[in-house]
């Protein structure tokens, strides 16, 4: 069996070269690893402290590698992942906060500002045959009531919006979507 090449050749904490790089080794010394792990400001600077599902801030008192604000957010994320795998659709990690910023907190269905808790709407619903899946260009901010009212219907303007967002997608986001195994 071939040995895997090391993922990190420089220390994640201080950027110095790792003396003996090997798979799984991220730090040049134990001191560096400990210092980096307990320094939430560096972790925050590198990864952010927002929930992957809802975009809510994660309390600084929580463990440093926590990805979701609550257990319910984690459960809903896992349900989304299973749904995408079952349908054979790609699923990208998408920050809800990033989508709300991109859309300027405007509902893409009624074009009014979102004042309450915003939701993410799949422009081309997941249930629709030929859906692009849970990808950056297929999600948009919406009011909860508007999103519920739309249900799994596709309006003609939805395809136009999807194409517009697909062309507007940042180049660093143009990585191939993860297809379920």
Task: Describe the protein in words.
This protein is mainly α. 34% of the residues lie in helices and 4% in strands. It contains six helices and two strands. The chain has helices at residues 30-37, 40-47, 71-87, 96-103, 144-150, 156-168; strands spanning 119-122, 139-142. It has a two-stranded antiparallel ribbon with strand order 1-2. The two termini are 22 Å apart.
List the topology elements.
Elements lengths: L29 H8 L2 H8 L23 H17 L8 H8 L15 E4 L16 E4 L1 H7 L5 H13 L13
Brief synopsis:
The chain is mainly α.
Q: Cα distance, first to last residue?
A: 22 Å
Order of helices and strands: HHHHEEHH
Question: Main β-sheet, in a few words?
Answer: 2 strands, antiparallel
Query: Helices and strands: which structural class?
Result: mainly alpha
Could you list the spans in which at least 5 consecutive residues all have pLDDT below 50?
Answer: 174-179
The number of helical runs is 6
Cα-atom radius of gyration? 20 Å
> β content, as a range?
under 5%
- Overall residue-averaged pLDDT value: 79
Regarding quaternary structure, what we see is single chain
Inertia-based shape: elongated
Widest sheet: strand ordering: 1-2
Number of strands: 2
Helix fraction bin: 25-40%
Comma- or semicolon-separated keywords:
6 helices, elongated, two-stranded antiparallel ribbon, disordered C terminus, mainly alpha, 181 residues
């Amino acid at each position: 069996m071939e040995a895997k090449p090391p993922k990190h050749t420089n220390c994640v904490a201080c950027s110095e070269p790792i003396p003996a790089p090997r798979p799984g080794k991220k730090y040049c010394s134990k001191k560096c690893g400990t210092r980096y792990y307990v320094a939430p400001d560096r972790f925050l600077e590198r990864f952010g402290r927002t929930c992957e599902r809802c975009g809510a801030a994660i309390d600084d008192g929580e463990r440093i590698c926590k990805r979701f604000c609550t257990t319910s957010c984690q459960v809903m994320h896992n349900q989304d992942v299973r749904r995408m795998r079952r349908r054979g659709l790609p699923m990208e990690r998408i920050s809800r906060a990033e989508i709300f910023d991109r859309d300027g907190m405007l509902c893409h269905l009624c074009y009014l500002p979102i004042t309450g808790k915003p939701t993410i709407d799949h422009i081309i619903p997941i249930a629709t045959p030929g859906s692009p899946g849970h990808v950056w260009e297929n999600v948009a901010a919406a009011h909860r009531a508007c999103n519920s009212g739309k249900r799994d219907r596709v309006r003609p303007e939805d395809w136009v919006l999807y194409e517009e967002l697909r062309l507007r997608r940042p180049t660093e986001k143009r990585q191939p979507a993860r297809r379920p195994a």
